[in-house]
Amino acid sequence: MDSRTKSDRKVAESRGRRADPSLGRVLKGFVRFPRALPIIIFVAISALTATGVWAIEKAQRNARQNELAQIATAASSALERRANANAAYLRSGAALLGTQDEISPALFQTFVGQLRLDANFRGAEGIGWAPRVDSGSIPSFVAAQREAGQDDFTVHPMPRPDQAYAVPVTFLQPLTERNRRALGYNMFSEATRRAAMLEAERLARPTTSGRLVLIQEGSTKADTGFLTYMPVFSIDQFGGRRLKGYIYSPFNAQDFLESAVEGELPKRAHIEIYDGQIAPENLLAEMKLGETGGTSLVRPIVIGNRQWTMRIESLKTSLLSEIAVITLLAGLIVASLALAIAWLLTRQAAEARQVIGILEEQAAIRNSLTRELNHRVKNTLANVLSIVSLTRRRATDIDSFATSLDGRIRALSATHDLLTQSEWGTTPVRSVIEVEMAPYALGRDATVDMDGPDVELAPNDALSLGLAIHELATNAAKFGALSVPQGRVEVNWDLVSSGLVRVRWRETGGPPVPQNRPRGFGTELIEKIVAHELRNPVDLVFEPSGVRCTMLIPVRTRSEFMIRAKENAPS
């Protein structure tokens, strides 16, 4: 049992070790990018919210589509019921009038009165009678109508020579002022009406005409309308059928639509009726209750053996429904709260890591400076002696000697202060060089020429440049151009590019430089340590005429080197 338990533990530990690398990479990723966790949380909650809003909107669209289908069904049924009711009246009228030898005004008025037209007939202009009158019988027909009481009755327009008969409107009930305009009008003279009448005669059933303007509208209005014709036949003694005329109903299309769908159309849709295909020139009537732009639905309907097209479109709605807006706002609030909490936690962790990184970097800087301090102390003592010797050779009296010596010693001290202060901000190239060369470039004893544009260096880069200039100056003061009165040093710098400055050091007039000289610490410092810190090679040449050195130094923005702005990658 003990051996098996130990074996199981080893297997579990091995599995845990195999899982550790991936988990470690994830943790390192969050350490390296601390803002990723709150952003991931916010994006995840926002994605869930967006998915919920999309699902809600999809359900709302489906509901609107189903509602529109119900509206279309109700509206088409209402229109067809209204048309069928009118057709029933016309059929009954055709059955009555077909049995009469003569149709008088009293007979027709009695027939219409007995129909007791109810609300189902709303939208129509009434019921009319238009007999077939042969072209040769038109004068006698007009005379008969005038004798019957229609004093100003005329047939207009007269049939063309190729037309055997006319179909003038003779009676039209109720006899309103509008309907009086239609009396005597030869409907067979107009192509749309003629086509409907011929089709009704052929089918012997109520037939609706195409889109037209009723005679009742006069010349002041252009509302569209249509007519429904029912042919009336007489039967001769041989059983033959002869067209006697037409009983018909004229309709204003807009009134027909509004009366038919009254109460059937919710105030969330727009309806249009077209004669045939959907086209502006085929529009019969429409009911617009608001701005359109929503879902649309097209339904064919048959009115009096003629096909119409009904188009229903839902009114334009807001971009999101109310429930979707509530869901979206709630999701954004939750995502924002989660983002704020995760942000605070990760910010605290990031600040702790930054403090640790700052302490580690400062420790590394202190170690480097401690090593450099040991070397600089020796060089400082040598510099002091060289300064005293150089000052003594150039001085003419005790006061000038004391003044020059005091200034150079103070400049040497300022070099250390500048290098220390450069850790906290940018330092001009000129300031670094001037501080390091100040002990050798005062007043009339100036033996150094400096020239170059204004360029700011990062603290570490300024420190490296200062170390290099200090070493070159120390070497020149010990062995080179600064060790003799006639020696001179030229320090020039220029911008190679926006991110790189070139510094040139050149000595002239000094003692000849031996070519077999040993390499000292200063040379190693410049060619290896300084070059490494500047991330560019240093060209240091000991020519017989004097030392020449060229350095390339990066020019960085403040965000690249400020310690508190860095995000140190984990080791």
TrEMBL record:
<dbReference type="GO" id="GO:0016020">
    <property type="term" value="C:membrane"/>
</dbReference>
<dbReference type="Pfam" id="PF07536">
    <property type="entry name" value="HWE_HK"/>
</dbReference>
<dbReference type="InterPro" id="IPR042240">
    <property type="entry name" value="CHASE_sf"/>
</dbReference>
<dbReference type="InterPro" id="IPR036890">
    <property type="entry name" value="HATPase_C_sf"/>
</dbReference>
<keyword id="KW-0547">Nucleotide-binding</keyword>
<keyword id="KW-0067">ATP-binding</keyword>
<keyword id="KW-0812">Transmembrane</keyword>
<feature type="transmembrane region" description="Helical">
    <location>
        <begin position="36"/>
        <end position="56"/>
    </location>
</feature>
<feature type="domain" description="CHASE">
    <location>
        <begin position="99"/>
        <end position="262"/>
    </location>
</feature>
<dbReference type="InterPro" id="IPR011102">
    <property type="entry name" value="Sig_transdc_His_kinase_HWE"/>
</dbReference>
<dbReference type="GO" id="GO:0004673">
    <property type="term" value="F:protein histidine kinase activity"/>
</dbReference>
<dbReference type="InterPro" id="IPR006189">
    <property type="entry name" value="CHASE_dom"/>
</dbReference>
<dbReference type="GO" id="GO:0005524">
    <property type="term" value="F:ATP binding"/>
</dbReference>
<keyword id="KW-0472">Membrane</keyword>
<keyword id="KW-0808">Transferase</keyword>
<protein>
    <recommendedName>
        <fullName>histidine kinase</fullName>
        <ecNumber>2.7.13.3</ecNumber>
    </recommendedName>
</protein>
<dbReference type="GO" id="GO:0007165">
    <property type="term" value="P:signal transduction"/>
</dbReference>
<dbReference type="Pfam" id="PF03924">
    <property type="entry name" value="CHASE"/>
</dbReference>
<keyword id="KW-0418">Kinase</keyword>
<keyword id="KW-0597">Phosphoprotein</keyword>
<keyword id="KW-1133">Transmembrane helix</keyword>
<feature type="transmembrane region" description="Helical">
    <location>
        <begin position="319"/>
        <end position="345"/>
    </location>
</feature>
